[in-house]
Amino acid sequence: MPAVVVVGTQWGDEGKGKATDQLGQGVDYVVKFNGGNNAGHTVVIDGETFAFHLLPAGVLTPGVTPVIGNGVVVDLEVLFQEIEEITSRGKDASALKISANAHLIPSYNRVMDRTTERFLGARQLGTTGRGIGPTYADKMNRVGLRVQDLFDESILRQKVHSALAQKNSLLLKVFNRPAIDPDAVADELLSYADRVRPMVVDTSLLLNQALDAGKTVLFEAGQATMLDIDHGTYPFVTSSNPTAGGACTGTGVGPTRIDAVVGVVKAYTTRVGEGPFPTELTDAMGERLRAEGGEYGVTTGRPRRCGWHDAVVTRYAARVNGLTDLVMTKLDVLTGHETIPVCVAYDVDGEVTSEMPLTQTDFHHAKPVYEELPGWSEDITGVRRFEDLPAAARDYVLRIEELAGCRISAIGVGAGREATITRHRLLG
C-alpha cells in the first residue's frame, strides 16, 4: 500500500500521533497535509514523551522523510523550537522537507486571532489563539504569505504592508488596539530565510516521484473529521480540511493514488473548545474519564470534555473519509466500569435517527440513545493479542466495529508505541 491517509474520526485527540508513529516505522515518507500548531501529537518511545505541533510524527523514525505539505500553515518560530527540542534530545530532523507553497503564520495573525476571539465574548469559538484561522482567511482572500516569499524580500515586504493596511485599520478603529509595524514583521520573517531555505522543495513533485518509485507515503491529518471546515460541527471547527480529501489538496497528490484511509477512534469520545457534544459527561464520570485518560490538550493544556463513545459520529466519519480501517485507542481507560454505554442513535425532538442530523440546530439538540455493554475489570495494558482480551473487552470492540461499518484493525491498550494489539496489517 504505497499511499495511506491517517485521519481522526472524532473531534481530535484520538491518538493519531501514536498511530502515525507506529505506521511510520514501515514507510518512507510521513506528510502533514493540513492545520498548523493549533493541534498536537503525543508520541511515547521507550518511556520518553515527545509532543509535536508542526513536525510530522514520523520525524522520530530513522530513514523516514518528514514532509510539511502546502496545506499546512507554518509558524516558523514554533517550527524551529520543535526542531531544536528534538535535536537536544538526540533526534535528527535534518531530513525535513517543506512545501514552497505552504503559508506562513505572521505575528499579526496571532494578534488578530486573540483579539477577535475576545471581541466575540459569549460567542467565542474556542480557538487556540495561534493565528491559524486568520492565516487561512488570508490564504482564501489572496493576501497570504507563502514560504517561497521568504526568498524575495521585496515581494514579502509588499505583501506584509498590503495585509496590514487593512488589519491595522481594524485594530485601531474597531478593537482599539495599537497598529503593528509591517517592517518589523517582515524583518522577523526574513530572519528565518537562510535556515529554512535548505528544507524547501516542490513537495508535490517529491511525493509523486516517490510513489512512482514504489515508496510508501503516509499522510497524517491534524485535528479530525468533526472539526473539518466543511464536514464538522460548523462554526465550532478548524479552518482546514482534516478529512481524507484534504490529503490530496494539501499535498498535490491525486486521489487515484490513495490506497487506504485509516481512521483513528478513541474508545470513548472527547473534544476541546466550544460546540455541541451529545455524549458529553459533565458529572463525576466525566471527571473520571478525564483523569484516567490524561485528557488535557497537547497544545493548550486545556482539560478535554469527555463522554461515552458516539457510534453515530464514528459511522459518519467512516462515510465522509471512505475509511478502510479503524485504529481504536485508549481501550485500557475503560477498564473498571461495570457497564459501558455506547451512543447508537440520537433523539432529536422525539425522532430517533442513527445518522448525523441534517442541520447543526438538530445536532445541537440531539440527545444520545445509549446501548449498555458489559464492562471488564482485568488489566489489559500488557495484552498483545486480541484473543487474550477479556471477553467483554472483545465484545466492546466488535460492537463498535459493527456500528461503524468498518473493521478495527488495531487497538491501543496503553500509551507506549508497543502497547498495541494488531488484528489486521495496515500496510499490506
UniProtKB/TrEMBL annotation:
Gene3D superfamilies: Adenylosuccinate Synthetase, subunit A, domain 1, Adenylosuccinate Synthetase, subunit A, domain 2, Adenylosuccinate Synthetase, subunit A, domain 3
Binding site for IMP: D13, E14, G15, K16, N38, A39, G40, H41, T128, R142, Q223, T238, R302
EC number(s) given by UniProt: 6.3.4.4
One GO term describing the cellular component: cytoplasm
Cofactors demanded by this protein: Mg(2+)
GO molecular function, one term: GTP binding
Binding-site list for substrate: V298, T299, T300, G301, R302, P303, R304
One Pfam family linked to the record: Adenylsucc_synt
Pathway connected to this protein: Purine metabolism; AMP biosynthesis via de novo pathway; AMP from IMP: step 1/2
Binding-site residues for GTP, renumbered to this chain: 12-18, 40-42, 304, 330-332, 412-414
The entry's keywords: Cytoplasm, GTP-binding, Ligase, Magnesium, Metal-binding, Nucleotide-binding, Purine biosynthesis
Entries under CDD domains matching the protein: AdSS
Cofactor: how and how many bound: Binds 1 Mg(2+) ion per subunit.
Quaternary assembly: Homodimer.
Family as reported in the entry's similarity comment: Belongs to the adenylosuccinate synthetase family.
Free-text function comment from the UniProt entry: Plays an important role in the de novo pathway of purine nucleotide biosynthesis. Catalyzes the first committed step in the biosynthesis of AMP from IMP.
Protein name, UniProt field: Adenylosuccinate synthetase
Source organism: Actinomyces glycerinitolerans
Record gene name: purA
